[in-house]
Structures are given as structure tokens and as C-alpha cells.
Design brief:
It is built from six helices and six strands; from the N terminus they run H-E-E-H-H-H-E-H-E-E-E-H. It has 213 residues and is of the alpha+beta class. The chain has two domains: 99 residues, Chemotaxis protein chec (3-Layer(aba) Sandwich), CATH 3.40.1550; 82 residues, SpoA-like (Surface presentation of antigens (SPOA)), CATH 2.30.330. Strands 3-4-5-6 form a four-stranded antiparallel sheet, with no helix packed on it. A two-stranded antiparallel sheet has the order 1-2. Strand 4 and strand 5 form a beta hairpin. It is elongated and about 80 Å long.
């Protein structure tokens, strides 16, 4: 993300201005998620005050005060570390009676569940999926592949009128007829496959090839 290899070389140094900006944005996002997490208990707003790389210089409460500490494991690529969230007890004391499991479940309504379900559904529907159309397949020996030249014709196993497979991700989900549309290559879907059909068809093809051998 910052131009490096994404590995930790073991040297601890001061953060650059760019790294501080990136971390500040990450922290702001974490604070937004914390507000959502606390919303069922209390209406609270977090804000970013300052950044300090040395924890001994952080003064949020007296050293003798009790605190609530939440420790989480964070992993970025192959680098793992710990993140600690510290809440002074004097801030938590007014709402301690709301932190019981009974109170939490009572405050969680079905409406909130429906809203979360709707949000998750809308978020999933925005995920992009790669699609690929497979015109055909064949098997060549390494010597044949090595001898291929421009202009050579490769005969495929499929017939010219066969419907091609349409992959969504790594799964075959549709059958289609190839063609063109407004000067672009296109396909017309002719069949929607169920989840189990692609694997069955692949096994059938493998069995047919085995019988021919």
C-alpha cells in the first residue's frame, strides 16, 4: 500500500507523515465501528484527538485508576500484532448496569436485525464477480504446443453448434450461445445451471473420456 514489500524488517522507527495519515484514517474507521458497536448500549460519539507512538506518554487517566482493557489480535499480510483499547472505569461506571447480557439482548430489537440483514444483503449484491466464457477445450502434447505457429488451427472437442460454458468465479453457472452485439463479442444465455449440475457434467465428461480410452 505504501510502496514496500509489506514485510516487517524488525526495525522500529518513527512513522512518516504519509504513514501517520494512513493510520489516522484507519483509526477514524475503527471509531465509526466502535460507535456502531456501542449503539445498543449507549449513544456515544468518539473523536480523534491526537496520535502518540510512545504509550508511556499517553495520559488519559491517573496511573492508579482502574481501566477496562480490550485486547485484539491484528494481522496484516504475514505480520501479526496486538491492539489494545483502554476505557477508564470512571467513564464506564455510569453505564455498567447496561452491560449485562440480559440488558444487551433486551436492547437488541428485531428491527435492528432486519436492518443489518438488509444492509448485508445490499453489500453482498455490490460485490463484483468475474465472468468467463469458455469456447471449448482440447488436449495437445507438449511437442504439438511447442510446434504451434501463427495461422495454425486448433480443433476443439466441442462442436460448432454446442453451447458454451459460462463461469462465474470458478463455477460453471450458465450455458450460452456465442455471437456478436453492436460490434462486440457477446453471448446469449440459454440455460441456468443449478449448483450441483456443473460438477455432475464434469464427471460425466471425465467418464466419457475414460470409456473412449
Amino acid at each position: 500500500m505504501l510502496g514496500g514489500k509489506g514485510t516487517f524488517n524488525g526495525n522500529i522507527r518513527e512513522l512518516t507523515d504519509i504513514e501517520k495519515t494512513v493510520i489516522e484514517r484507519v483509526i477514524m474507521r475503527i471509531l465509526e465501528l466502535l460507535e456502531d458497536s456501542w449503539s445498543t448500549v449507549v449513544d456515544v460519539r468518539f473523536r480523534f484527538e491526537s496520535m502518540e507512538s510512545n504509550p508511556f506518554f499517553v495520559q488519559i487517566c491517573s496511573p492508579s485508576d482502574m481501566v477496562l482493557v480490550v485486547i485484539m489480535k491484528v494481522r496484516v499480510s504475514d505480520v501479526e500484532g496486538m491492539v489494545s483499547l483502554c476505557f477508564p472505569y470512571f467513564l464506564m461506571e455510569p453505564i455498567m448496569d447496561r452491560l449485562s447480557s440480559q440488558q444487551w439482548f433486551a436492547s437488541t430489537s428485531h428491527k435492528a436485525d432486519d436492518e443489518i440483514r438488509t444492509w448485508l444483503n445490499n453489500s453482498v449484491m455490490q460485490v463484483t464477480m468475474p465472468m468467463a466464457m469458455e469456447l471449448g477445450h482440447t488436449v495437445l502434447s507438449l511437442s504439438d504446443v511447442y510446434a504451434l505457429q501463427v495461422g495454425d488451427v486448433i480443433k476443439l472437442d466441442e462442436l460448432k453448434d454446442s453451447h458454451i460454458d459460462v463461469r462465474v468465479g470458478n463455477q460453471i453457472r450458465f450455458k450460452a450461445r456465442p455471437g456478436t452485439l453492436n460490434g462486440h463479442m457477446a453471448v446469449e444465455l440459454t440455460k441456468v445451471l443449478t449448483q450441483d449440475m456443473p460438477q455432475i457434467q464434469i464427471n460425466e465428461k471425465a467418464n466419457e473420456k475414460g470409456e473412449k480410452k
